[in-house]
Amino acid sequence: MKMRGAVLFEAGLPQPYAISKPLVIEDLDIDGPGEGELLVEMAYAGLCRSDLSTIAGARPRPMPVVPGHEASGIVREVGPGVKDLKPSDHVVMVFVMSCGGCSDCVGGRPNLCGSSSGAKAKGTLISGHRRLKLNGQEINHAAGISCFAEYAVVSRGSVVKIDKDVPLEDASLFGCAVITGVGAVVNTGKVYPGADMAVVGLGGVGLNAVLGGVVCGANRIIAVDINDSKLALARELGATHTFNSTDPNALEEIRDLTDGGLEFVFEVAGAIPAWEMAYALTRRGGTLISAGLAPAKAEFSFSPYQLVSDERAIKGSYMGSSVPERDVPRFINLYKRGLLPVQKIRTATIGLEDINVGFDRLSDGEEVRQAIAFGG
Ligand code: NAD
Ligand code: ZN
Question: What does DSSP say about strands 23-30 and 132-134: parallel, antiparallel, or unpaired?
Answer without folding.
Answer: antiparallel
